[in-house]
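Sequence and fold:
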Amino acid sequence: MNLSRRTLIAAGAGALAMPAIRPAMAQAPLRFCLDWALQGNHGMFSLADDRGVFRQNGINLRMDRGFGSGDTTVKIASGAYEIGYTDVSTMVKFNAENPDKRIVSIYQVLDRTAAALITLKKTGITTPKGVAGKRLGAPEGEGSRMLFPAFANVAGIDAASVKWTSMAPNLRDTMLAQGQVDAVTGFLFTTYFNLVGLGTKEDDIVAWPYAENGLDIYGSAVVARADWVEKNPQVAAAFVKSSIAGLKLLLAEPDAAMASLKKRESLFDEALEKRRWFMTRDRSILTPNVKAGGTGVLDQARGELLIKVNADAYGVSNPPKFADLFTDRFLPPQAERMLG
């Protein structure tokens, strides 16, 4: 069900009206935490900040790098940051266990998860089913690993036969490149370009994104605590509006966006990160859903699938309802969300 036609009924029609954005809002710093170290797709926030978009909408932005989506989710819940950018899958288990600190997606940036199964040609694995009986690596508790049983189910993989190897996140891709594991699970645009950075030839990388192979669920989103957005609806709406404007800038001026990130991190590789951005754009942002309904468009069936597979993966017996995890309340009209 496309929520541009039918918004969250459970929330009530009146609650879903778009709050007015007042340019004269107080310029108190708004603390914003990313999901990881600076990557190309984060240029939508940095370039919008550099161009004064957030300030024009009443926000004095303080943007910090993250240390994983799970960590960002906890930081938002604790109040250390008002708004975050995180994989929405991390919120299913968290919200079930912490209903008083419930987090909600206020702008779904990645229409498709970047989670993927990734290997190298030298392993001889040519289909997802080929990982049966092989050594599969990922950090313990990492999101794409936790979702693997659901992906295995739709892809016809014998998940019980896989031999898992756990490692620190920064060692996963090195271990694949060195042949210590046969395949890994992780974010496609992270692992792919990490392998390139390690000297792996691109023709040797083989990947099966979950969303393109039967498990079509959402990825990362702009999120905030539910009680915070109820107290600060204008700020939430202004942040979403600014982020969408930033995404349009990133699409139109990728070189300028990479330069804006380089200003914030001297070791930032502009050429590599622009390519990472292009992959993110093509695989997770400019999807058929977004092209038809605009960025941030929500579909209840896809959201409920995400909740179900995460609840199954983490053994959650009381998963949150769709309307408790997603809202389109703060999105501008569809015409302003079309990306061309």
Summary: The chain has 16 helices and ten strands.
